[in-house]
Specification:
The chain is α/β, with parallel strands linked by helices. It has 2 domains: 11-145 and 205-247, Rossmann fold (3-Layer(aba) Sandwich), CATH 3.40.50; 146-204, S-adenosyl-L-methionine-dependent methyltransferases (N-terminal domain of TfIIb), CATH 2.20.25.110. Helix content is 28%, strand content 33%. The protein has 8 helices and 11 strands. It has a 7-stranded mixed β-sheet with strand order 3-2-1-4-5-11-10, sandwiched between helices. A hairpin with a 3-residue loop joins strand 6 (155-158) and strand 7 (162-171). Helix 5 (117-129) packs across helix 7 (208-217). The radius of gyration is 18 Å and the shape is globular. 39% of the residues are buried.
């Protein structure tokens, strides 16, 4: 994760396409693992918040929320949707925040975008520094099973103004998965003109043992890994996904 984000090019597409996709599927797990643990009014950091889909739910539940993401394009959407929230464009490996939090939540396998174990450890250490004593860190990550479902086939969605093509590929030897996005959007002024966008999003698959050990090395306590399907997430998005819970 260098300066800038591959999501910047497709920020509009991301915001529209996944508006009502991840959160409804994850809600049973979040109810059990996060919302039941953190009282309304608590200070919560939405880490790698994207365009604010989950942030909106946190605000609705009465949390004092800040959102952080590397993509300026996604943060622009989040600020437009939730002008009451303090959103920052920052790298999760090097958080520079002037406040501390009761809880940090990171969803939708965002931390799989960290491509080396050193990057993951740096992100855990940075998160640990911004949490208050007995603070909760909850996040989900995809393990190897999740990437095995990528069959190199294009998935296509289309309406009158947008055509989106997505396909995934996973290299078991490098434990790296690539998701290719091609998006055609009809220009708002010239209806006969379409603009093409393309981006490739790369994720890394980590063994569960490496994730738990890295959390402990960062100073977290009471670390736990919970299969998303066991926590109530449906199998479509829950297959191969684990939630990790840790306390300071």
């Amino acid at each position: 994760m260098s300066s800038g984000s591959p999501y910047d090019e497709i920020a509009d597409m991301y915001h529209k396409l996944w508006l009502d996709w991840y959160l409804p599927a994850a809600m049973p797990a979040l109810e059990r693992l996060f919302f039941s643990q953190i009282a309304p009014g608590a200070k919560v950091l939405d880490l790698c918040c994207g365009s604010g889909h989950v942030t909106k739910e946190l605000v609705a539940r009465g949390y004092d929320v800040m959102g952080v993401d590397l993509s300026a394009g996604l943060i622009e959407h989040a600020r437009r949707e939730l002008p009451c929230v303090d959103f920052r464009v920052q790298d999760v490996r090097n958080l520079e925040l002037e406040k501390s939090f009761d809880a940090v939540l990171s969803t939708f396998d965002a931390l799989n975008h960290l491509l080396t174990l050193d990057d993951l450890r740096r992100a855990f250490a940075a998160t640990r520094r911004v949490l208050l004593p007995n603070g909760l860190f909850l996040f989900d990550m995809n393990l190897a099973e999740a990437y095995s479902a990528d069959l190199h086939q294009w998935a296509v969605t289309a309406d009158d103004r947008n055509v989106t093509l997505i396909r995934g590929a996973y290299d078991e030897s490098t434990q790296q998965g690539d998701t290719e996005f091609i998006w055609f959007a009809k220009e708002p002024v010239a209806d006969n003109t379409w603009r093409r966008y393309r981006s490739v999003i790369t994720e890394h698959c980590y063994p569960q043992s490496d994730i738990l050990l890295s959390l402990r090395d960062a100073g977290f306590l009471q670390t736990e890994a919970i299969a998303a399907t066991d926590a109530g997430m449906d199998s479509h998005l829950g297959f191969g996904r684990f939630f990790f819970s840790a306390r300071t």
